[in-house]
């Protein structure tokens, strides 16, 4: 009781004294544990809440003359205060909650999602914070909660915008928010099986089966399990198994199709209502499971369109409840449909994809871009190439569907995982409870068939579902395997290890190889670095990641071929050829030198962006400023004005005396490199050398951030800022972009390694930002990449590009090459909403724009938030919805025309013999295109031409005819 009291006083104290610092996770975790042991859970007492606003004692009901009122618990003061300080709402009572606050649109619907997450935690953890409080009589009145739910959805669903933008979230919430007496039986079945396996590990295999591919026959397996282990099961476990068996029987009980129309009295006279009646009549006998799944999938899709067309909120609620029942029919019957031929499997995938769209996991316009129709020849065959294209589209839909769940819920799951680790299973539970689960299983089956026919077989240790692996960047590596199932942001990576991530961290330090469940996008900084440096990189499924967990910590060989097949094997299984790939001399030979022969450090005046061009790259400034200056000459209306702070200004400031060192900043830096060379000649181990370097760089970095700027430079900055940008320093928001001489070298891109400051307005912040940018090449991440791949990493000189902010509606990257197909004549485009799009690993809207005039939609954006750039500086986070594409046809045509001009004129304008692809950063504001950067697109030619990689790349006969009647 003391613990509960002290926690309450701590949180309440913050509230009473007007403070609002966030309560730390450790304290919230203690609160959760205390509430589990409290007979009242998160509640302090029960009261009557009357219609006139008065509150009465539990034995003193509201008088009839002021209305009936409702009775429920009040939250503990600490719980209320936690909502105010952290926006975390524990044990929400709906009858206690304003519907607008519960929808919580200003906070990306956090409270609604927390309610769902709370339901999940209660299901898998014996009531969670209500472990004892669930027996607190009168705390929550089920009928009041259900009545509130009906009112909430009647209000919410009358808004067309809510339904269009948040169809998936609203539909998912119906599984958890009481409104019609139904329970989420599928989740109940999964949570009960999890509880049993947590208590009795021998049940784990059955739990996995129930979670991954539940079938009615599993009931008999659970019954047999109970008999087999009868002597080892205590009474509580026997009771839990009986409850699970009862839940499974309820789940697999056939749905009364005839009763479906009783759920939708408001729409029975509409066109969709008539289609529902016809569906019931055709499928009442349920003789043909393939027909039942096919027709239910179509009706589920039509139901979504009917919801959008229906104006009445109450009718929409009935349609959405029907939609959940239709998905349940598909979910229960899909495993019974055993496709016997290739054609039948293709049809099954097509209709499961249709159902997945109907259920909201894919947007309607995204489904329209997926070409899932069969195009057999007159002889009933399809080429291997056409089948592979079908597989790629189907695989994309599986990835998009999982990404939809993560986009909607990952942020709040991450918050709760900070104090309740069990929350991390929520997303997996959502995916496994969806029809997308069976779409994924069927796509894996097709992948296995095509891999066999094309001999493009992955060989990844002994894990199942090998077709879930998909190579992104070719390369090979050897090292310890690290499997990271949680957030990657706190992981300290090592350059000699291989990492499996849920998603790639935006500031990835050097690693030997990576694979990710969420690949981000093809042109993020992480992907470009991996491609440039020949780091093997692959995508995999959630299940693949879990299958790799037993191999965590073991040394493995990992390779991705030029065609994307993936090999991973234990060290003991490596061939002699594979061992020879890692001769000690190899890395040294790969290193390249930063050219400094022509650098002009005597130029110490600020430059107008209009005064520089590509010929100044590496001499006066880095390639960002030089190339943007070049673009300003070529596309004056598409590029903003700007200032360039050249290398020479940085270098003169580095000649100042460094505090407490009795030498200049530059001398300190060079002394460090001399010492490290001496350490290496004495054979001091590399780990000790690296620690010394990083410690010294930390000292230097701190000193640079505090470095005094010369008065002459500050005066010039103020004058030139006003002359070039048209306003005083401190009145125009600008970007400060680090621009070093070690970027965009012939064989090293350096993409995203140094600092860019977004939308800075304040004069002091701009001046401090200059020093922060100068210090950024000496961060651990930036230095480690340079140290690993450059011969002279000490010769890095930062310039700074200062350009006014453009608050673009959407932004992204253009690569003047087809990355997915290797075609030099095609284009790859990735865009995200708001500023800074695509480059930081966001799940971006991606296209392959073809040279023949068409384009292929490769991936939708799945970022739940995006950046806007207010004139007051900084960034504002806005919530995104996914029902509309980011790019329109006009945008795509403008990008195509831009690429054509760049290809035709840039090399000639810059007097360069470069004939490779370009990497262009751009954005659109009110449909006007703005250019922000252009650089060579650097690929790792060694990886692409490696004889070993060539040897593991099968020659695929894409024109090989496959009879659709082929038996599986």
TrEMBL record:
Keywords: ATP-binding, Kinase, Magnesium, Metal-binding, Nucleotide-binding, Transferase. Residues 620-943 form the Pyruvate phosphate dikinase AMP/ATP-binding domain. It catalyses: pyruvate + ATP + H2O = phosphoenolpyruvate + AMP + phosphate + 2 H(+). Pathway: Carbohydrate biosynthesis; gluconeogenesis. Its EC number is 2.7.9.2. The keyword Hydrolase does not apply. Its cofactor is Mg(2+). InterPro entries: ATP_grasp_subdomain_1, PEP_synth, PPDK_AMP/ATP-bd. Belongs to the PEP-utilizing enzyme family. Catalyzes the phosphorylation of pyruvate to phosphoenolpyruvate. This is Phosphoenolpyruvate synthase. It comes from Geojedonia litorea.
């Amino acid at each position: 009781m003391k613990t509960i009291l002290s926690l309450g006083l701590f949180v309440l104290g913050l509230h009473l004294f007007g403070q609002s610092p966030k309560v730390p996770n450790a304290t919230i975790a203690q609160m959760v544990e205390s509430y589990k042991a409290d007979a009242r859970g998160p509640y302090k007492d029960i009261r009557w809440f009357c219609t006139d606003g008065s509150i009465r004692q539990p034995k003193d009901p509201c008088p009839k003359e002021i209305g009936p009122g409702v009775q429920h618990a009040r939250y503990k003061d600490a719980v209320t205060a936690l909502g105010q300080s952290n926006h975390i709402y524990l044990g929400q009572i709906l009858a206690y909650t304003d519907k607008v606050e519960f929808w919580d649109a200003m906070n990306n619907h956090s409270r609604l999602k927390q309610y769902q997450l709370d339901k999940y935690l209660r299901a898998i953890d014996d009531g969670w914070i209500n472990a004892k409080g669930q027996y607190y009589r009168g705390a929550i009145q089920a009928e009041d909660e259900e009545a509130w739910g009906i009112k909430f959805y009647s209000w919410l669903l009358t808004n067309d915008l809510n339904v269009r933008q948040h169809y998936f979230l609203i539909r998912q919430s119906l599984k958890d928010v009481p409104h019609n007496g139904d329970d989420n039986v599928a989740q109940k079945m999964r949570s009960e099986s999890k509880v049993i396996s947590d208590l009795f590990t021998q049940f784990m295999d059955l739990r996995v089966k129930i979670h991954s591919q539940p079938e009615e026959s599993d009931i008999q397996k659970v019954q047999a399990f109970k008999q087999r282990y009868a002597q080892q099961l205590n009474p509580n476990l026997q009771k839990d198994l009986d409850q699970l068996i009862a839940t499974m029987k309820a789940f697999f009980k056939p749905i009364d199709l005839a009763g479906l129309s009783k759920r939708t009295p408001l729409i029975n006279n509409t066109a969709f209502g008539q289609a529902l009646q016809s569906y019931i009549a055709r499928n009442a006998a349920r003789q043909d499971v393939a027909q039942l799944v096919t027709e239910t999938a179509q009706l589920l899709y039509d139901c979504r369109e009917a919801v959008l067309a229906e104006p009445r909120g109450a009718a929409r609620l009935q349609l959405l409840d029907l939609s959940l029942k239709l998905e349940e029919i598909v979910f229960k019957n899909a495993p019974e449909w055993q496709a016997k031929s290739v054609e039948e499997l293709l049809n099954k995938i097509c209709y499961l994809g249709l159902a997945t769209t109907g259920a909201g996991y894919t947007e309607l316009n995204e489904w329209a871009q997926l070409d899932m129709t069969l195009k057999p020849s007159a002889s009933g065959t399809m080429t291997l190439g056409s089948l592979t294209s079908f597989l790629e589209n189907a695989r994309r839909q599986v990835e998009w569907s999982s990404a939809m769940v993560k986009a909607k819920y990952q942020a709040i799951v991450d918050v709760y995982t900070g104090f309740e680790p069990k929350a991390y299973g929520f997303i997996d539970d959502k995916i496994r409870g969806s029809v997308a689960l069976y779409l994924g299983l069927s796509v894996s089956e097709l992948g296995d068939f095509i891999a066999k026919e094309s001999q493009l077989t992955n060989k990844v240790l002994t894990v199942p579902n090998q077709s879930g692996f998909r190579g992104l960047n070719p390369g090979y590596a050897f090292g310890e395997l690290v499997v990271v199932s949680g957030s990657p942001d706190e992981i300290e990576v090592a350059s000699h290890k291989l990492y499996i991530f849920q998603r790639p961290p935006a500031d990835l330090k050097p690693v030997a190889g990576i694979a990710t469940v969420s690949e981000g996008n093809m042109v993020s900084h992480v992907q470009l670095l991996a491609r440039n440096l020949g780091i093997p990189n692959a995508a995999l499924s959630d299940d693949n990641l879990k299958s790799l967990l037993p191999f965590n910590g073991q040394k493995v060989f990992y390779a991705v071929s030029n065609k994307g097949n993936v090999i991973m094997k234990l060290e003991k299984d490596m061939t002699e050829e594979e061992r020879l790939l890692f001769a000690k001399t190899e890395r040294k030979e790969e290193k390249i030198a930063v050219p400094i022969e022509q650098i002009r450090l005597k130029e110490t005046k600020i430059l107008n962006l209009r005064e520089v061009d590509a010929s100044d790259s590496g001499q006066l400034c880095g390639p960002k400023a030089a190339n943007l200056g070049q673009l300003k000459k070529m596309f004056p209306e598409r590029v903003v004005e700007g200032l360039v702070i050249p290398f020479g200004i940085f270098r003169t400031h580095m000649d100042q005396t460094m505090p407490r060192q009795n030498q200049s900043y530059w001398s300190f830096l060079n002394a460090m490199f001399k010492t490290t060379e001496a350490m290496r000649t004495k054979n001091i181990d590399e780990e000790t050398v690296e620690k010394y370097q990083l410690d010294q760089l930390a000292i230097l970095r701190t000193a640079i951030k505090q470095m005094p700027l010369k008065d002459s430079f500050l005066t010039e900055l103020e004058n030139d800022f006003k002359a070039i940008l048209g306003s005083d320093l401190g009145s125009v928001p600008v970007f400060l972009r680090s621009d070093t001489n070690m970027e965009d070298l012939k064989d090293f891109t350096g993409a995203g390694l140094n600092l860019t400051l977004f939308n800075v307005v304040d004069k002091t912040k701009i001046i401090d930002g200059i020093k922060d940018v100068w210090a950024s090449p000496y961060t651990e991440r930036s230095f480690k990449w340079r140290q690993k791949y450059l011969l002279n990493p000490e010769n890095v000189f930062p310039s700074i590009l200062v350009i006014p902010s453009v608050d673009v509606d959407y932004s992204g990257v253009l690569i003047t090459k087809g990355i997915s197909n290797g075609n030099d004549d095609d284009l790859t485009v990735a865009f995200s909403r708001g500023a800074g799009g695509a480059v930081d690993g966001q799940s971006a809207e991606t296209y392959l724009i073809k040279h023949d005039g068409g384009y292929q939609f490769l991936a939708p954006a799945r970022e739940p938030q995006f950046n806007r750039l207010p004139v007051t500086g900084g960034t504002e986070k806005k919530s995104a919805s996914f029902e509309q594409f980011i790019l329109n046809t006009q945008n795509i045509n403008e990008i195509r025309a831009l690429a054509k001009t760049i290809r035709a004129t840039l090399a000639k304008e810059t007097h360069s013999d470069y004939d490779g692809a370009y990497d262009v950063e751009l954005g659109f504001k009110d449909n006007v295109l703005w250019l922000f950067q252009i650089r060579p697109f650097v690929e790792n030619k060694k990886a692409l031409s490696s004889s070993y990689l060539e040897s593991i790349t099968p020659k695929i006969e894409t024109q090989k005819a496959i009879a659709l009647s082929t038996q599986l």
